[in-house]
Design a protein that fits this description.
By secondary structure, the chain is of the alpha/beta class. The chain folds into two domains: about 190 residues, 3-Layer(bba) Sandwich (FAD/NAD(P)-binding domain); about 120 residues, FAD/NAD(P)-binding domain. It has eight helices and 20 strands. The strands form five sheets. Strands 1, 2, 5, 6, 7, 8, 19 and 20 form an eight-stranded mixed beta sheet that branches. Helix 1 packs parallel to helix 2. The structure holds NADPH dihydro-nicotinamide-adenine-dinucleotide phosphate. NADPH dihydro-nicotinamide-adenine-dinucleotide phosphate binds next to helix 5.
Length: about 325
């Protein structure tokens, strides 16, 4: 065994609210966690402007600020937060093996997966421009809908998420225009009926987004094209919501962990345990339903507690602190 292989009691993969909460609990339980931040340190929240629905912040906080606070809190108790991207794992043996940036190898007694999910976007240049500017493009109505109270917004998508989010927005906004690219919804009938029966939701079928229009800083309208007639219209809107699905960041776990058909990790009901002993999951990597910072944080706590109990049940390894094999 190479002496460059590090052995850790608890490796946390991912730096969103799930990962940092797991880190806070794991470090306070003397598990000496090491947390790898991944490609997007701070996770999805770093693309959100203002977070107003996380309890404890009565005046709100920006997503990036909140993630810095969480990191500080985890580090205060001794979490070793590192830059790096986990590129490969091997969970087939008793020791869980993990590779950082395809180079460094780590042997882990426990692994907490908090790799999250990524919202899918259309990929239009104008959409990405206003997303990066924080000027009115969002993939989370529950997070950002409040900022568009009494305004007109556009939402794209026709699955259950799009229906749920369109309905959520209809309670806040003056008008919601829903762009459906085909001549039918993908959503369940009941969800479709709900949006169809909401007076301030206008549904445009067979309609694709051509461009998100703005004044250079904020979104002002959405240009859309009817695929059947070719007609192009400009819909006045201050918000453009994308609800075309999420992709869980779980590709590297395929073949080791049980995943559902979309790639979400299947956890044992009521716990963070996966099908592999010593490997736990928290946050959006296993949650396609709630997807909130607070639910991710809650499951991060669960994962740390489950990992702690697992280590305690194997107390020989629990006494080993972060060290290097010789
Ligand atoms: P889905 O994959 O079910 O739906 C994605 C939708 O986005 C489809 O209508 C799809 O269109 C559309 N879409 C994809 N790409 C584009 C594009 N480039 N341009 C325009 N439209 C596009 O994702 P969801 O997030 O809605 O749902 C994921 C899973 O979570 C589902 O199993 C769903 O049932 C579940 N869920 C359940 C909820 C509940 O029960 N309360 C709430 C939310 C989600 P097309 O149909 O043409 O492919």
């Amino acid at each position: 065994m190479s002496d460059s292989i590090e052995r850790v009691k608890c490796l946390i993969i991912g730096s969103g609210p799930a990962g940092y909460t797991a880190a806070i609990y794991a470090s306070r339980a003397n598990m000496n966690p090491i947390l790898y931040q991944g490609a997007q340190p701070g996770g999805q929240l770093t693309t959100t402007n203002e977070v107003e629905n996380f309890p404890g912040y009565p005046d709100g906080i920006t997503g990036p600020e909140m993630m810095m606070e969480l990191q500080k809190q985890a580090e205060r108790f001794g979490t070793d937060v590192r830059n790096g991207w986990i590129t490969k794992v091997d969970f087939s043996g008793e020791v869980h093996k993990v590779w950082v940036n395809d180079e460094k190898e780590i042997y882990c007694d426990t692994v907490i997966i908090s790799t999250g999910a990524s919202a899918k976007y259309l990929g239009l240049e104008s959409e990405q421009k206003y997303l990066k500017l924080g000027g009115g493009v969002s993939a989370c109505a529950v997070c950002d809908g409040f900022f568009y109270r009494n305004q007109e917004v556009v939402i794209v998508g026709a699955g259950d998420s799009a229906c749920e989010e369109a309905h959520y927005l209809s309670n806040l906004c003056k008008k919601v225009t829903m762009l459906v690219r085909r001549d039918e919804f993908r959503a369940s009938k009941i969800m479709e009926a709900r949006v169809r029966n909401t007076p301030n939701i206008e549904i445009l079928m067979n309609t694709e987004t051509e461009e998100v229009i703005g004044d250079g800083q904020l979104v002002t309208a959405v240009k859309a094209r009817n695929k059947e007639t070719g007609e192009v219209i400009e819909i006045p809107a201050t918000g453009f919501f994308v609800a075309i699905g999420h992709k869980p960041n779980t590709d590297i776990f395929k073949g080791f962990l049980e995943l559902d058909e979309t790639g979400y990790i299947i956890n044992k009901p009521g716990s963070s345990r996966t099908n592999i002993e010593g490997v736990f999951v928290s946050g959006d990597a296993a949650d396609h339903v709630y997807r909130q910072a607070i639910t991710a944080a809650g499951t991060g706590c669960m994962a740390a507690l489950d990992a702690e109990r697992y280590l305690a049940s194997k107390d020989a390894t629990f006494e080993v602190s972060t060290s290097t094999y010789n």
